[in-house]
Predict the structure.
Amino acid sequence: MNHVAFTVAPETIDEYRVRLLAAGVECSEVVNHDDSEFGVSDTVHSGVFVRSVYFQDPDGILLELACWTRVLRADDVAHDPAPVLDRVNS
């Protein structure tokens, strides 16, 4: 498992980050995921599709609060799907 993500309303993500920090939880800045070369932006713009805050639970499991800022479109995927590998029981 990489991490567990929880969907939150777009208007609450900044407030939730403030509340996490106030409770003493170390967390990331709000990350604006977009379709740029690096996949993140310093600002919110029309290409940002999800905003996220990352932090860990007491057991070290990575958690994410994520708010979708728009519906994903077919052109949001710019790569070919990975092929399914054939598994052979030996």
Remarks:
- The first strand starts at residue 4 and ends at 7.
- The chain has a mean pLDDT of 89.
- The chain has one helix and five strands.
- The helical segments are 13-22.
